[in-house]
Write a structure and sequence with these properties.
Number of domains: 3
CATH topology of the largest domain: Ubiquitin-like (UB roll)
Strand order of the largest sheet: 9-8-18-17-23-21-22-16
Structural class: alpha+beta
Shape: globular
Number of strands: 23
Number of helices: 5
Distance between the termini: 37 Å
Length: 457
């Protein structure tokens, strides 16, 4: 298996210097199929070794009852040459190979920046080993839980209700000089299906997920039910398991999957879940079962249709256009932002609870799609209840300090990863149909999934 050369460079989040003779950069080689989680484990060992050698710092950590946490980041031109955090900032990567534009290049090298932070721990650290003092930083989520398959036994049960009405579908148009002054920022909404056919229409649901903590008895007392906003895409369901999830109560009138139709009690539901967990299938390349809502991981690899179509014979742009479900996220550091809504000590994040559905025609390029999505972000109210929503991006001090970055999931089940859009491969038309699969489109399915990320300029 091909390998990559990685150099690990250490620094402190607070900017204070580290004793250079104990924290010299460390060079290592790793297989391209090495998982990022494995990289984190190795880095934790390296940090612990350096901390052991730096006796003065180790003594200070123990005296202050601190844990040493670390973040991993790489310099990335895709992120405007800013550090791209691995597994924390919204860009989730699977393997070392995903960190390179062209993993087939004859020589691969990368600098991984290890940012150290020191956090007071409520539990005493006196009896812990040096290794026990080191851990990878975890993102704080607004949701109820992260259903990690190593920590929870989870299964999709159906939908909480019948499918929710889709967000208004933004209809892009090639006619920029219409009599009504049509532009990407003021185009009207179109039909939510656009003749796609009922079977392949975009559907936004509240997926019903049942879960048990790993090791707990699968009984009614231990069963938790979770509502997860999601999009169904045939073979799999895309939804953010960490964000905007809510615990719900059992109700026999939920819209059950066939396995659970007729359930009238929690006892019977638990019995069927137990049976299903013992023989469910898993999504290729993922720790999650195929029916569970999940978010695709990212890759920095340059997308080329030949990855899916050896003859690069992706389908022509469908006459009826392409239906795209869009999820928003951001990578802005809001810790020092001075804004009346973000600086009151209660809110330090932006709530992207809204999704968008857009209809893309043959003449629509990446710039036009971005324009339409920017308009969708801007029209969202600045605040809804306690939430700080995307309208704050268009106010000072955030105004003009960010831009939108697009990622697309190819229609082929061979590639369950998000690729950059525009793709950047030589010969690319810059149109979305390069992500479609011939056979799938021939069946009438013209759906794509996209993520729009707000990144610093």
């Amino acid at each position: 298996m091909a390998e990559a050369s990685l150099r690990f460079v250490f620094s402190r989040v607070d900017g204070r210097p580290l004793a250079s003779h104990h924290w010299e950069p460390i060079d290592d080689t790793m297989p391209l199929d090495f998982q990022i989680d494995q990289v984190k484990e190795l880095v934790a060992e390296k940090v612990a070794a350096c901390l052991s050698a730096d006796e003065a710092l180790l003594e200070a950590v123990r005296k202050r009852n601190q844990m040493v946490t670390f973040l991993l980041a790489i310099d990335c031109d895709v992120c405007n040459e800013r550090p791209c955090e691995l597994t924390l900032s919204g860009h989730q990567f699977d393997h070392v190979s995903d960190l390179f534009l062209d993993p087939s290049a004859p020589s691969l090298s990368l600098t991984v920046r290890v940012h150290l932070d020191f956090e007071e721990d409520a539990n005493t650290v006196a009896g812990k080993t040096v290794e026990g003092l080191v851990r990878h930083a975890k993102r704080t989520y607004k949701g109820i839980m992260e259903y990690d398959p190593d920590a929870f036994d989870c299964v999709r049960l159906g939908d909480v209700t019948v499918p929710k009405p889709n967000p208004s579908s933004t209809k892009l148009s090639a006619q920029g000089d219409d009599d009504d002054g049509d532009t990407a920022s003021n185009r009207g909404s179109g039909s939510s299906t656009h003749d796609a056919g009922e079977e392949y229409a975009l559907r936004r649901n509240d997926a019903l997920v049942g879960y048990f903590s790993r090791g707990d008895a699968r009984t009614a007392t231990n069963l938790q039910l979770l509502s997860v906003p999601s999009w169904d895409f045939g073979a799999f369901c895309i939804g953010d398991k960490n964000y905007h999830c809510t615990n719900i109560d059992f109700c026999k009138d939920h819209r059950w999957l066939p396995t659970y139709v007729g359930v009238r009690s929690l006892k019977v539901l638990c019995e069927r879940i137990d049976d299903q967990l013992s023989r469910r299938l898993r999504l290729p390349g993922s720790g999650y079962s195929s029916e569970l809502p999940f978010l695709p991981t990212f890759t920095l690899n340059t997308y080329h249709p030949a990855l899916v179509f050896p003859a690069i014979n992706f389908p022509p742009f469908p006459n009826q256009g392409i239906q795209v479900a869009v999820r928003f996220d951001h990578h802005l550091d809001l810790s020092d932002v001075s804004h009346k809504r973000l600086s009151n000590g209660k809110h330090k994040d932006i709530d992207f609870s809204m999704d968008e559905e857009i209809h893309v025609d043959a003449a629509d390029n990446a710039a036009m799609i971005k324009e339409a999505l920017l308009a969708a972000l801007k029209k969202t109210k600045m605040s809804e209840g306690d939430a700080v929503t995307s309208g704050v991006l268009f106010e000072k001090p955030l105004l003009s300090k960010w831009e939108l970055q697009l990622w697309v999931l190819p229609q082929s089940p061979k590639l369950v990863k998000l690729f950059r859009y525009p793709t950047g491969w030589r010969g690319s038309t810059g149109r979305l149909h390069e992500f479609l699969e011939m056979e799938t489109v021939a069946e009438g399915d013209r759906r794509l999934y996209m993520e729009a990320h707000v990144v610093p300029k």
